[in-house]
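Handout, section B. The chain below has 229 residues.
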Amino acid sequence: MSSTRAASASFGDGPLSRAVALVHTLVTVEVLLLAAASPGLAVLFLLGPEPANLPLAAVSLLPLGPALSAALYALHHRDRDLTDLHPARAYARGWRLNALPVLGLWTPLLAWLTVIAFTLTHFAATGLPGWWALLLAGIGLASLLWGAHALVLTSLFTFRARDTARLAGYFLFRHGRATLAAASLLVLSAAGTALLTEALPALLAAPLLLSLLHGSRAVIAETQEDFTV
């Protein structure tokens, strides 16, 4: 009888059970993320590569912000016990809590990146020296990395938009490893898109976001210790 109780108590605690729980969570979060972002992604994949489509592409990406934020929330609060898995419930809660706050930062970021991309695609018409293009590309990359920090902070904490923006800028230089980890994920996503298919980052969004959370551990820990009550 005691051995039966021990086996029952340990069920869901072993390495195999934790691995199955992680896979289940990743698959569930991936499906929910794609479903939440599907209206915009469908339009995005139908658009041609013409620079004139950049504003419409930015609008199409608006639903992706809350979808990514909810996924980060669900992955951060995931259960490691196979007997107590509720990733769909965590995703829904994350979307409900974070949709509006994340749009407050996601929307201006998309607008800013659209301006940069439009300028670069029409750079010959600007008459500016070539080094301006490199500067704009660097600003765009820094904006993306800032956005990665802001997305993590907005998904896991409740701050005012301007405070989140300041913290994201602070952590951009404060935690170089976290910023470098985010940059490596951007490079990996870009390489996969260029070499394989444009859909690859979307199909691997959940594992990529889990990696972003892992790389942001120092940012999350410092925020919890120094910037929350």
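Note. Confidence is low (pLDDT under 50) at residues 1-9. Compare this with the example in section A.
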